[in-house]
Structures are given as structure tokens and as C-alpha cells.
Amino acid sequence: MKIDQYRIRPKEQVDLSKCPTRRPDKADKQEITQRLMPENIDKMADLQERLYAENRYALLICLQAMDAAGKDGAIKHVMTGLNPQGTQVVAFKQPSSEELDHDYLWRIGRALPRRGEVGIFNRSHYEEVIVAKVHNLVANQQLPKELVDDGIWQQRYRQINDFEQYLYENGIRTVKIYLNLSKDEQRDRLLDRINEPDKNWKFSSGDVRERKYWDEYMKAYEEMMEQTSTRHAPWYAVPADNKWYARYVISEIVKQQLEQINPQYPELAQAERDVLEECRVLLENGN
């Protein structure tokens, strides 16, 4: 699959209203869900095992989206074949008082995957240039007043780019995925959460209130992707109206990122191979 069709080029002007939210007409649901998706999950599992064994690189996957876009479902279905021992999922919610006493990247640094791991962020540091921007939350954060001006967002874009460049130069590869959900599809999914009793627990009245800010959110996401999609940490705007297709695209992105890392099982030194041979002989002789 050519995932470049969903990749945001560095400094590319982004208009989400022109980006697809639905699957392509030629996409075959049966072929994708029954053959291609299982193949990707198996391939990802193999690559993750090698990543864990090599213990040199890490992969960080950042998921951002509007409410009800399917982040939780994507994590559940796409990452189902990965070994939990080498995978960590972190969901970032409203910052705690302790986190607000630190810089906004502090809690992100603490949650980064270790070498050999795949880390998945359900929301991420990008909340600080999305929600914080739409609702002007920086006005109430514990920042020096002289730092809170119209230039703060450009400063944060630069800081995030520098941070992700730093991660890249230390072996942590970053890929960022925006689930591009249409407003109509979000409405239908929120109604499902109200109308279907087994989904009531997912519903939050706050999600409905946030719909009033849809246009502001779209502008914030567009500027964010324009400013922070880089060669070493790209953004992908993935069509999210069809959950099965979004999950397939995400699996392709993750698989291809792992293939680019190309992790290998460590080669043993000759002395270690000699020890293996001695142990093999002992075991085969019944010792």
C-alpha cells in the first residue's frame, strides 16, 4: 500500500476539508480484513520481536483525533499481535497539578518507550498546541506572564520539532497519526453511544460541547501538521470514517516504519557460540 498518499509533507499547506475521511471506492473490505490485515499483524509481530532482541531502537506512535474517531479501537485491533512485554500504551489526560508544575514535555519524556519497545501515545504532547490553543489554556497555566503572548504557539512548534529531532538522533523513531473523522460521522458515533446501552459508558456530554469548536479544532490541527510534519517525524492524515480501513492504514504505517528501522537479531560472538555448542552437546548426551 502507498501510504505516502496520506503523509503530510514538511511545510505543506494542509486543508483537512480536502483530505479524505472515507475509504477509497476500490478498497475491498473482505480482502483487507481477512487477508491483508492479518498479514500485517503477523509481520509487525515479527519485526517487534527483532526490535526487542536488538535493543537499539524504539518506535513511538502518536495518535491524535477528535472524540469518537477510533483511537482506542485502533490500538486494540492493530496492536493485537504485538508482545505486551515490548509494548507500552500511555493515555494522556488532563495534566495533574504535579505535571503543571513542570514544563509541558516533562510528562512526555517520562513516558517514552525504552530501547527495543514500541510506545503508543493515545493523545500526546500535541494536546498542548491543540486543546490548549482552542481554549487558550496557557492563560491559566503556571507560566511567566511575559512568555504568554501571540508567539507562544510558534515557539511550541519549534520546541516540539527540536524534541522530536533529539529523539530521532537517539534512536527513537516517531510517527504521528491523525484520524481524520468527518463531523457527520462523529455525530453518528456519539448518537450510537447514547442509543446503544452497551456503549453508554463511552459517552461524555463534554464531547458534544466540544463539537461547537469543530472549525477551531480543524484550524489548529491544520497549522499543527503544517508546522510539525518533518522528514524524521512525519504526520499522516488517515481517513477514519470507516474503522476497518483506518485500522488497516495504521497497520501499514507501523509496519513500514518498523521495516525502515530493519531490526536484526543480535549476532553472537565466537566465544558465545562456543558455549552454545558445549551446552548442546551436554544436553544431547543426557546431562
Portion in helices? 40-55%
Total DSSP helices: 11
Uncertain stretches of 5 or more adjacent residues: none
CATH topology name, in short, is Rossmann fold
Output the structural class. alpha/beta
Largest sheet: 6 strands, mixed
Overall geometry comes to: globular
Head-to-tail CA distance between termini = 52 Å
Using the CA coordinates, give the radius of gyration. 21 Å
Q: Please state the average pLDDT score.
A: 95
**Beta-strand proportion:** 5-15%
Walk across the major sheet and give the strand order: 1-6-5-2-4-3
CATH H-level superfamily: P-loop containing nucleotide triphosphate hydrolases
SSE succession:
EHEHEHHEHHEHHHEHH
CATH class call? Alpha Beta
Strand element count: 6
Return the domain count.
1
Under the CATH scheme, the architecture is: 3-Layer(aba) Sandwich
Summarize this structure as a short list of keywords or feature phrases:
single chain; six-stranded mixed β-sheet; 287 residues; 11 helices; Rossmann fold; 46% helix; alpha/beta
